[in-house]
Write a structure and sequence with these properties.
This protein is α+β, with helices and mostly antiparallel strands. It contains three helices and seven strands, in the order ααβββββββα. It has a four-stranded mixed beta sheet with strand order 4-6-7-5, with no helix packed on it. The chain has a three-stranded antiparallel beta sheet with strand order 1-2-3, with no helix packed on it. It is elongated, with a radius of gyration of 21 Å.
Length: 149
């Protein structure tokens, strides 16, 4: 919220100054500056909130809610090719990410990158979401079988 207020104050000050100089500077400088501020705010304020019944992805001023009942599968990925899901929304700027496949909706896949992916996957698994592959700290590696020859 502070970033929004500060950004609006800065834009208003710049707008006043640009009108003082010349009116054409407003379109040439203010619009790209405003877009840049919104992009920076969105990148720096991205967070993922796990509630009792849903995952909330906060991306700048936007909030996207995904009920756990609509999540089909969560899987890890670290490949560029997986970023090109047919109908997906990407909330990450990393190649080490999680892909959340959804039952329905406008987007069929959501790509996120929490800082502690192991903990995030454990929390999802405890809420009944199907997680593909081993979950760090939840699925310990199996010891070698004593009956193998």
């Amino acid at each position: 919220m502070k970033a929004i207020i500060l950004g609006l104050f800065g834009m208003a000050a710049f707008l006043g100054y640009s009108f003082y100089l010349e009116a054409h500077l407003t379109n040439e400088i203010l619009v790209p500056l405003g877009v840049l501020l919104i992009v920076i705010y969105s990148i720096t304020s991205t967070k993922y909130i796990l509630r009792s019944h849903e995952l909330v992805v906060a991306f700048g001023p936007f909030r996207f809610r995904y009920p756990f009942s609509s999540i089909v599968l969560v899987r890890r990925s670290s490949a560029f090719g997986d970023l090109n899901q047919p109908v997906s929304v990407n909330f990450t700027f990393s190649t080490d990410h999680l892909i959340i496949l959804l039952k329905s909706g406008v987007f069929r896949a959501v790509i996120i990158s929490p800082l502690d992916q192991g903990r995030f996957l454990r929390l999802l698994a405890t809420r009944g979401v199907k997680v593909e592959g081993p979950i760090p700290g939840l699925n310990p590696p199996r010891p070698p079988s004593a009956f193998k020859r």
